[in-house]
Amino acid sequence: MIAAVHTFNSAGLYFRAELFIVTSIIAWTYLLHAYYKREGVDYRYKKGGVVEKTPSGADKYWELGQCLAHGKCPLEKGIINNLKFLTDIRHEIEHRSTNRIDDALSAKLQACCINFNDAIKTLFGKAFALEKRLPIALQFVTFDGPQRASLIGADLPPHIAAAMDNFHNGLTEDEQRDPKFRYRVAFVPKVSGKAAKADLAVEFVKPGSPEAEAVERVLLKEVERPKYLPSEIVEKVKAAGYQAFSMYDHTLLARQLDARKPGKGYGVMVAKTWYWYENWFEKVIEKLAEGWTRP
């Protein structure tokens, strides 16, 4: 798992999420093999009571999916959902390269790391804790809303977007919000009034405190993005100075750009009604500024 995290945090690498997923799944498999071995559970595949062999003649051990499915699996539901999700993504990436999926999966990868550290401490003792062996990853950039939207969604490969949607649709809202399934953190630039805290990159705040409430507002603002009906988008565009823009124009432009395509991140279907996000409004304004007119 340390190798997985170091690989993801390494500067200059491409398909970091892919490398992390493959390596972390190996780590989880070994962890559960160690647990089952200690508990006296035979984690080898058998057929007719006979241990199955690999082509090279070695015993055939359970893969991660089988480890998770066993009745004595010690992991919580949220952790299992996280690992099943990453396994589904691995099936999509193991035989073909992808591009720019790191940010789209980051919350799941972060949860995977924390879950592993918690599991190894719970199952084998705090002596195996990893938090002191891994540094905080430093960043070169900050992102505003439009920048982040351009990173997450527009270039997400269709098969990855479809795999993510299919998995999420099978979970309840509570399961999707479970921090053991995906772990999200808000980074807020802060000027500290105390010299001792002025250089802290990470600060822990007490639940229920004014600081915690402020962070919660940031998280809700990020997660619950404003949604607009098509008519509301048209009104916003007119208010921005494009009075001639009509609902018909909006429909044409959305079709031309295939804006409802999964993974583009321009909107969402809620109760059989399509809603647009703010970044779609920004895209419409961008195209109109470029001189777009109906064919």
UniProtKB/TrEMBL annotation:
DUF3644 domain segment(s): 1-170
Keyword terms of this UniProt record: Membrane, Transmembrane, Transmembrane helix
InterPro entries referenced in this protein's UniProt entry, alphabetically: DUF3644
Transmembrane portions of the chain: 13-36
Protein name (record): DUF3644 domain-containing protein
